[in-house]
Design goal:
By secondary structure, the chain is α+β, with helices and mostly antiparallel strands. It folds into two domains: 3-62, Ribosomal protein L9, N-terminal domain (Ribosomal Protein L9, domain 1, 3-Layer(aba) Sandwich), CATH 3.40.5.10; 68-153, Ribosomal protein L9, C-terminal domain (Ribosomal Protein L9, domain 2). Helices cover 33% and strands 34% of the residues. It has three helices and nine strands, in the order E-E-H-E-H-E-E-H-E-E-E-E. It has helices at residues 26-33, 44-77, 98-107, and strands spanning 3-8, 21-25, 39-41, 79-84, 91-96, 117-119, 127-129, 131-140, 143-153. Strands 4-9-8-6 form a four-stranded mixed sheet. A hairpin with a 2-residue loop joins strand 8 and strand 9 (143-153). The longest helix is centred in the middle third of the chain and has 34 residues, at 44-77. It is elongated. The N and C termini lie far apart (78 Å). The mean pLDDT is 87.
Length: 157
């Protein structure tokens, strides 16, 4: 049984990630990976290009981390105010989810997704009362910003 050694050009599920050198059966490589431009043969030139690409990706990742660290500092001093209808005891008519908090941050100009937001006290989710709620926003696996969500009663105008 012949085995091919190929350099992956893109992520291939259950096989490997972009830039890895993998060993596959001859037919799988020739009939699927190579024609679909998911992999290329391993040559000195392709290995050199791989190293250049890895260095470029590393520089981009470092620049992105620095940008996210700056964003985290700005998020920590920003406040998220949500006005919502509530009764006299402070109970909300409805509830506030992570999606609602995310929308408020996006209106403020921050690119924050709902799945990246988490209440520090997860037992209080979804928010169903007025108050100040500390949150954590995961911007990157290594970068987390802490912030506060202020839930205040809607003012009638």
């Amino acid at each position: 049984m012949k085995v091919l050694e190929l350099l992956l050009v893109q992520d291939v599920p259950k096989l490997g990630r972009k830039g890895e050198i993998v060993k596959v059966k001859n037919g799988y490589g020739r009939n699927f990976l190579l024609p679909n431009k998911m992999a290329s043969t391993v040559t000195k030139e392709s290995l050199r290009q791989l190293e250049v690409e890895k260095k470029r990706q590393l520089q981009l990742e470092l620049a992105k981390k620095e940008e996210l660290k700056k964003m985290a500092k700005v998020l920590e001093v920003s406040t998220c105010n949500i006005e919502i209808k509530a009764n006299e005891e402070g109970k909300l008519f409805g509830s506030i989810s992570y999606a609602t908090i995310s929308e408020v941050f996006q209106k403020m100009g921050f690119d924050v997704k709902a799945e990246d937001i988490e209440l520090e006290d997860a037992s209080r989710y979804p928010i169903k009362e007025l108050g100040i709620f500390p949150i954590q926003i995961r911007l990157h696996p290594e970068i987390t910003a802490k912030g506060k969500v202020w839930v205040v009663p809607e003012t009638e105008s």
